[in-house]
Amino acid sequence: xxxxxxxxxxxxESFQEIILRLQSYWAARGCAVLQPYDMExxxxxxxxxxxxxxxxxxxxxxxxxxxxxxxxxxRYGENPNRLQHYYQYQVIIKPSxxxxxxxYLGSLRAxxxxxxxxxIRFVEDDWESPTLGAWGLGxxxxxxxxxxxxxxxxxxxxxxxxxxxSGELTYGLERLAMYVLGVDxxxxxxxxxxxxxxxxxYGDIFRQTEQEYSRHNFHAATTEMLFDxxxxxxxxxxxxxxxxxxxxxxxxxxxMAHPAYDQCIKASHIxxxxxxxxxxxxxxxxxxxxxxxxxxxxxxxxxxxxxxxGGQAA
Amino acid sequence: xxxxxxELFSEEIPARMQARAAGDLKKLMTDGLVEAGLTxxxxxxxxxxxxxxxxxxxxxxxxxTTREERxxxxxxxxxxxxxxxxxxxxxxxxxxxxxxxxxxxxxxxxITTPGRAAPEIVAEVLEHTIRHFPWPKSMRWGTGxxxxxxxxxxxxxxxxxxxxAQVVPLQVDGIVAGDTTRGHRFMAPDTFSVTSFDDYxxxxxxxxxxxxxxxxxxxIWNDARQMAFxxxxxxxxxxxxxxxxxxxxxxxVVLMGRIEDQFLALPPEVxxxxxxxxxxxxxxxxxxxxxxxxFVTVANRETVDGGKTILAGNQKVLAARLSDAKFFWxxxxxxxxxxxxxxxxxxxxxxxxxxxxxxSDRVARIEALAREIAPLVGADxxxxxxxxxxxxxVKSDLRSEMVGEFPELQGLMGSYxxxxxxxxxxxxxxxxxxxxxxxxxxxxxxxxxxxxVALADKxxxxxxxxxxxxxxxxxxxxxxxxxxxxxVIRLVLGNGAKLxxxxxxxxxxxxxxxxxxxxxxxxxxxxxxxxxxxxxxxRPGKNLALVPFRGEGQKxxxxxxxxxxxxxxxxxxxxFPDGKTTSELEEFRFDPHAIVSDLLSFFHDRLKVHLRDQxxxxxxxxxxxxxSGSAPSGATPGNDDLTLLVxxxxxxxxxxxxxxxxxxxxxxxxxxxLWVDEMKKAGFNDDPSFLxxxxxxxxxxxxxGVEYSFGPDPKxxxxxxxxxxxxxxxxxxxxxxxxxxxxxxxxxxxxxxRLRAPIDAFFDAVQINTDNxxxxxxxxxxxxxxxxxxxxxxxxxxxxx
Lengths: 314, 801
What we know:
- The complex is a heterodimer.
- Chain A has helices at about 1-5, 15-30, 50, 100-110, 175-180, 200-220, 225-240, 255-275, 280-305; strands spanning about 30-35, 60-70, 85-95, 120-125, 125-130, 135-145, 145-155, 160, 165-170.
- Chain A is α+β, with helices and mostly antiparallel strands.
- Chain A folds into two domains: about 1-215, 2-Layer Sandwich (BirA Bifunctional Protein, domain 2), CATH 3.30.930; about 220-305, Up-down Bundle (Methane Monooxygenase Hydroxylase, Chain G, domain 1).
- Chain A is globular and about 60 Å long.
- The model of chain A is unreliable at about 1-10 (pLDDT under 50).
- By secondary structure, chain B is of the alpha+beta class.
- Among the domains of chain B are: about 1-60 and about 115-205, Alpha-Beta Plaits (2-Layer Sandwich); about 65-115, no CATH class; about 215-335, no CATH class; about 525-590, no CATH class; about 660-800, Isoleucyl-tRNA Synthetase, Domain 1 (Orthogonal Bundle).
- Chain B has a five-stranded antiparallel sheet with strand order 2-3-1-7-8, covered by helices on one side. Chain B has a four-stranded antiparallel sheet with strand order 13-15-16-14, with helices on both faces. A three-stranded antiparallel sheet of chain B has the order 4-6-5, covered by helices on one side.
- In chain B, a hairpin with a 2-residue loop joins strand 7 (about 150-160) and strand 8 (about 165).
- Residues about 525-590, about 630-635, about 685-695 and about 705-710 of chain B have low confidence and may be disordered.
- The chains are: A alpha+beta, B alpha+beta.
- The interface between A and B is large, with 37 and 42 residues.
């Protein structure tokens, strides 16, 4: 089945078909197909399967869809390609395999991009996440002048050097799918098969939520509460990591890196909401980003002490 | 002789790094080979997105054998010493030669180091080059520790001669060198082997890779121009973009498209910037209308549909981008039509710098400065009013959506929006021109309105950062203050403006001080209990800082404080930044005169650099900065008038280039040296200051009881040359004084140059240091006259050589 898809015999017809083809392509290449992380994040990179698992020596290969939220990008569902909630497809492989570029190009063929007709280019684009204290070198991948993916070799995460290095691929699913399906407005994109008994477009599913969240993000969210939530998440993250590794209830050594990291993600999203509400000044902005980065760094420090992070689980 | 071919095959190298990397590969390799003793005839390096290549022709096959003779211990020295010598030379006792020396017989070692074969050296140098390659940014990948710009996949390294090619044995981090490479990523991905550079380049071309970036760029340029020409359009030249695009493709295929009609109303600069920044498209212009109507994109492959799919995709992306631009443009025009109210209000919330306030604070200051400067740069009352009006709008476009998207269009968009708002053309032009000159090659505006605002903008920046003591240091100049200072210099010189820089800067610095005080940065005070209390000391928890230079118990209110600082810079202040705790307090002495003097020296330094580029020596400028009677720096008469300063420098420079001029300098220096020596004898060792010297003479004369004003008395002249010199000086002064008054420095300098002959004659005929004190004194005073006359335009003692 995977083989016939790769040959691209037939172009995909819907948004979900593109996702399904990517899932089976990367599953066939040995990736664990994970599910989205159950928290609000700004990008697929925030999933602990990427941020934390990029650390330490242990080999890792995962692929997943991650619903992502960027409150400032809300346009009430009217902009043809800007959304406050969208999907990223994320692949992370550690150590980065020598044929990662070829594997990536194979995935484009799998979703119907025939590279004998299209112009595919790797254009320098170094990636840096100030909130995660992470950076890497790589490219944005262009297909006929359009950016369809981000391709990065992680060099540092949470202030730690990545050894070995992970290769990370991020596909902006809506934009990529619109291109493959030849759709001009995201809301008009078929979500399921157009000949399904009940055909649904992207707009059928998301136009209303884009309106609701745009109003919420820009004008309604209670800022005082959000400021408090930010402080709470920050304090909780630090508190969890300050607790001794030895758990008095079980006698086991349990470092709570992931629960602490959840608080870091939470703080990051709350910051994005506050930013969308326009209550964070330019100078404060840097300070908030610095506070989230400090949390991410603490979580990374903790994770490398855990078993999954390659630390001694004594 | 052999030829060396190297290719380092990697994942895509950023376009902007390729040319530099090819150069580095060539330099590191050839330097290394030569250092190891090899010679070569010719070397050339190339880069494509996926490879760096180097071809070295005529490489020697071995490094030469070298012989070295080393002296050892004396014959009969302890065995230990001799054994040590043998170990260090790697010889046996039989190999040693015994030679007679002054102190007896010594052992001599003849050490022969055989030459090494080229492959061994190449392998060593290449590995070192790869491991120490100066990429601006490099990375690791997989489990390896090697660093390269992106993952390095293969190394091709062969030496070839008439008999064939041989792979240089080499392995770097698991990558084994070979004689194979690959073609185009999509069109010819298979590997193939090569035997020489010619074979390599030819096979690459068959495999759809043009190795030479210049050839790719030429190909793109020619095809693009021809396609444009066929449509009656012209290609907008952009060398930077061409180089970048040539670095993004191995097999360039040029495609041309048209911009949809609905976008043609956008300003051409917007179309060009959007296409270039986002898509790396070239713009095509309709020569009849000047409009940008089409684009050229460069694909990296041929397709069976002749690029149709690729072009359609690019068209679509462009349409989306231009829809955004059109949306910004239309929204912006609405705000512009509303007198830009929204933007002007919005500037209050844009921080310029946390100590220097918002953009709207800045606009207010620029307006005040522009009003003050306008009359000095040729504006009448009406134009001065326009300058003030322009100052109020030139920063508005920073709030526009278009500039938010394309910051490089700042100023230009302002001009469009000012016209849309119905503002006068002078104001619209100032929006773009007040940023000029942007660099050494950028043009300087000439309209008084633009010049006044441009100067106000730059002087506000400079005095502001000087006031908060954030000056450029070393290579760090985050606010581009050097460029701003050069901008001021070029604006002043380019317009021949007579600008009293010191006063203008002082006014601006005083304004900053008032603002800083109002904002609590320089806190205005309440009652000052003791004068020691704020100055030089930190006071917990209080935003209290103003201290009178002398006096206690005074009370200042805001108004009086503001007045006080306007009158005189006698108040020292300590700076308590708000929101800081005591331990974080910064101390800051705010002395407006010192700040402006320092800024003026910065201008002088920039001026030296600027004039040096114009071929005027730095010592010539130095000489002109310090004219007779002037203090060493700061507010000296005339040296903050840059136009005057440069006139003097140019006059001096052109006189120096004549024989008479350079001889005059020599004569002058002789006179000066004698004079200074004499003053040193009188006890002024460190300070040959002319005025002091004169007062010494005065005293001496008073003691001698000789009535004697400065200047020689002809009745003590013994020689004709003395008379001739004094006459020459008198007649030179008669020319020089009015010439300087009318700023005709060339005439003044020529008159000085004519002094050369009489000075030379005087020195030839007369001995200064005679036993007769009266004659001696008289001659020294004649020297003093030379000095006085010659220092009027410049301090010639500062000239070198």
